[in-house]
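Let us work through a complete example step by step.
Step 1: write down the sequence.
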Amino acid sequence: MPQRLVNTSTVTIDGVAWTNLVCALFMIAFTLFYAFLSKRAEEPPPTAAAPVDSREEFAPGAVGLALVVCMIVVALAAPSAYASVENSVSATPASLVMQRFLLFLPTATLLILLHETVRSGRKVLFSRVCVLVLLLLLVMITENPYTEKRNAIGPVYIGLLLVLFQNWFAVRSRRLLLLVAAWCWYFRRLRYSPTITGKR
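Step 2: predict the structure and record it as tokens.
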């Protein structure tokens, strides 16, 4: 409910137990699958940089299709997300699917395409830059402080920085520096925030 904190709301014991069980099963399954796929992906490092095969790059048709899907999703789902925030509508399973899955498609598409662009090592075309900029605008529409909490949008933009400057952040100390700087900025804003018990 709006303006009701977790420690003052009613609790259903059975619901809490089932929620913890589902979360535990998800984390165990995710860890096992991640470990299994990581072992399959491990390969000995090449002695010399091999030339990039053009077939490894995404086809323009696939990129265009992904961009069209993201634009349609944002055009249809974003107004509903903004309206739910303005009207203080409580979260429902349908709204969670829309906000956590559908509206996350532009972010996932941008991360994949940006990673492929950085790792390809080829000259970046103007059309590819336009697609990346348009996807970034869609991400700013779907992932912003108005519709999402800070702890939800923080990983999105930190992930974009790590993908965009992955060569510079290849050193662990630099990644740690980024996380420490983000935490310092967050606590500084929390300290000087006029309210602590707000929605955001």
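Step 3: interpret the result. The first helix runs from residue 13 to 41.
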